[in-house]
Amino acid sequence: MTNDWTAESVPDCTGKTVVVTGANSGLGYEATKALAANGAHIVMAVRSPDRGRDAARDVLGEVPDADLTLAKLDLSDLDSVERFADWFEAAHDELHVLVNNAGLMALPRRETEQGFEMQFGVNHLGHFALTGHLLSALRETDGQTRVVTQSSGLHENGEMDFSDPMGEASYDKWEAYAQSKLANLLFAYELQRRLELAGEEDVLSVGCHPGYAATNLQRRGPEMEGSLLRRVGMSLANRAFAQSAEMGALPTLYAATAADVEGGSYYGPTGFQHMRGYPGENESSEASHDEADAHRLWELSEHLTGVTYGI
């Protein structure tokens, strides 16, 4: 790894199939564009087909030979997750990289189709179910395959509240977000441990985070609250302090493609307070390495989603 690893450093991905959740905007869009520019076939898994079509058109405007497939995936509905996985396995013979990127941040309390708190349900449970459904495709694909799960530096503020994981008794939007991002890393590391115990040396599970990157993620919460003041404040903060979405996507691209990536690792910006800069290995919180919590979260996730991994 060099200190200036960029999108131009992405290796040739010709012949590889990559699923990117939330591929229509922000980090997912930038990752899609860079991977497609290097020959990958990208399955753009999006909640809104209309926005997905607009994004695909924009990618093709910059990468005319991009190989893109658009597919509907609503991570807030486990039935939609299962339908997407069934479609993918019927339509594709291989899966080289699954990028669990889509997410929500600091929303007023909402519930998913199955009644889960929205941030926990989308950021963690939806991706847990998706990965479980697609694990056989990853395991059966020749060569090394990867699961890349997007977390956040704010996972360091997170605590797993197993007594009230859905925030039904008490809800704080930022605490719920931090818990969901901690759950992402507990899941990523536990998946790697289980893969190793199962002897699956060719499937890697890694975590990543974008630092502070300017995306639509910061706008969604204020929009749902109807708060013009918070929306303007987030926009000004992005302009003043955030790095671009292109830079924020580099840790994802690194985790998905770099040759020296190791399973169970965590990648993010290497600059000031890991909020900006070129990608490299970061250290996550002590809580993210709590194997007892990881095991408990795994069992809870299997129970809530009905998805088991068989490893």
UniProtKB/TrEMBL annotation:
<dbReference type="Pfam" id="PF00106">
    <property type="entry name" value="adh_short"/>
</dbReference>
<protein>
    <submittedName>
        <fullName>Short chain dehydrogenase</fullName>
    </submittedName>
</protein>
<keyword id="KW-0560">Oxidoreductase</keyword>
<comment type="similarity">
    <text>Belongs to the short-chain dehydrogenases/reductases (SDR) family.</text>
</comment>
<dbReference type="GO" id="GO:0016491">
    <property type="term" value="F:oxidoreductase activity"/>
</dbReference>
<dbReference type="InterPro" id="IPR036291">
    <property type="entry name" value="NAD(P)-bd_dom_sf"/>
</dbReference>
<dbReference type="InterPro" id="IPR002347">
    <property type="entry name" value="SDR_fam"/>
</dbReference>
